[in-house]
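Fold it.
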Amino acid sequence: MARAMFDYTKAVLSKVSFDVNLFCKELKKAMDRLLPYEIEELKAWVDALIKQNPELNQCLILLNP
């Protein structure tokens, strides 16, 4: 079940990556819901996504509280 939440989170983040505010909002939700090891995987995935969409760079602060 936990893996399903991680995959769902990635799908949602991909779909809202066109809007920085939505992306940051969904990323914050993900940080609250995912398990610690999933958050580490998500950080790597978000880094790769930001390379494709540099405007999302401002959301990185949410990954390093």
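The mean pLDDT is 91.
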